[in-house]
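Data availability (excerpt). The following record was deposited with the supplementary files.
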Amino acid sequence: MEVVGRKFAVLGLARSGIACARLLLARGARVTVLDVKPREALPPGVDELERAGARVVLGPHPVAELKAAEFIVISPGIPDLPQVEAAEGAGVKVLAEIEVALWWLRAPIVAVTGTNGKSTVTSLLGEMGRRAGRPTFAGANLGTPLSDAVDSPANAPDGLVVAELSSFQFERTASLRPRVAVLLNVTDDHLDRHGTFEAYAELKGRVFDGQTAGDFAIVPAGDAVCEDLARRRKGRVLRFGPGGNAFVDGGDLAVRGPDGEEVRVPRSVLRIRGGHNEDNALAAMLAARCVGLPAAALREALATFAGLPHRMQLVAEVGGVAFYDDSKATNVGAALRAIEGLDRRGVLVAGGREKGGSYAPLRDAVRAHIKRIVLIGEARANMKAQLGDLVPCDEADTLEDAVRLAAAAAEPGEAVLLAPACSSWDMFRDYVERGDRFAAAAKATGNIREREVRAKDAKGETNAKSAKEAGKPGQPPAGGPDGR
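Predicted structure:
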C-alpha cells in the first residue's frame, strides 16, 4: 500500500493507536491522531508523534475532521461511534490497526484466535520460534501492537510473526493471509458488542479468510463449530485433541506434523497447570510444526514456559491455603476451565461487568470443585441467582473484602480462586489491575493471620505469667482462699 501524502485519522491513543500512527508517519502519510482524553491523561508516546508531524486533536471527535480523512484507523476497544458512521457513510474507509500493519508484513504469519487460551498459545509459539533461532515477533492483541512487527527483524522470509487476534480486530480487517490459522475454541463472549453467538463465531472464523490450499487451519478435534468455520474456507484442516494430529498419548504429548514426522514431549515437563493447558500445548506444537520449527525447540519451550501473569497463577500460600489469580478469566468459558483445573476444593471469587451470556455452564464445575462463592461487581446479583442454589454465596463491595471473606472460609489444603467470568471495567482499569489487587489482598491475609497468631501467643504468655504470679508465696491460689 502506497500511503505517501494520504490522509489518515487514527482514533484512540493507547498502544495500538500510537504504534499505527508511528508506522504511517514513517512511511510518509499525513496523520491526525484523536482521543477523547485530556493531554495529561495520554501516554508519553503522543509527544513523539507530534514531533514526527502528527496533528493531535483531543476531546469529542469532530465529524468534519473524520470526513476530511481518506482512512480512519480505529482501536479495537472503541465501539461504534456516530461520528465514524457518518464519515464512513461519506466514503471514508474504516480500518483496524492490524489491517494497516498487514500491508507491510512479509514474514510467515501464525494467527491465533479463540475465546480462551490464545495468549498462552501465542506466547508458547513465540518461545518456540526463539528457541529455534528464528527472528520472532509475538504480539498483536497480546501486548505489543502488530504495527511494531513491521520494522522488526521478524519481518523477513526467514522470520516468524505470531499474532494473537480478537474478535474486535476482525471487524475491520481484510488483508489477513496467515500461513497457519489457529482457532482454539468459541464460547459465549462479547455478546454485549456482537449481539449473538453466531455473529461472534463468524468473526472468529475470519481468521481462515484469505488462506489457500497450501495453508493450514488448526481447530480442536470434535468441535463442530470450529470445524465448520474452517472447512468453509480453503486451508488444509488439522486438528488437536483426541483422534487429531496432536494428541495426548499416555504420558506424552504427541504431534504428527504435515511432513508425517512424529514429535513427543513428556507431559510431566509442562509447567502450566490443567488439562486446558495441555490442549494449548498441543495446538502450539501443531502450529509450530506447520511452520517448520524443530522438535528440540518445542521441547525446550514447553519445559521452560511457566505461564502468563493472571492466568491460573499461584500468587500466595497462607496457612495451607493456595491463592490462584486467573483474572484473565473474563468470560464463562475461561472461568470454567480455571475451576476445572483446580486440584483441590476451593472458594471462588467471581463477578464484574457482564458480557451477555449465561452462567449455567459453570454449574457442574462449581458443584464438583467449589464450596463457597464470594461475588463482586455489577454481575453479583445475577450470578447469585444462577449459582446460589449450589453453594453458599456471599457478596462483597470491594475485592479486598471478597478476599478476606474467601480466606476465612477456606481450610488448609483448599484454595481461593479468582476467576471472575466477567470483564473488570465496572471496578478496575483492566484485568491486570484486578489481578494485582487480588494478589496484594491475598498476601495481606498472611500478614493478618501472622498478627493474629502473635496476638494469640502474646495473650498466652500473659495468661501464663498471671498464673505463675498467682502461685507465688503470700499470694492466694487461683480460685479463692480455699483453692476452689
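Summary of structural features: The first helix runs from residue 15 to 26.
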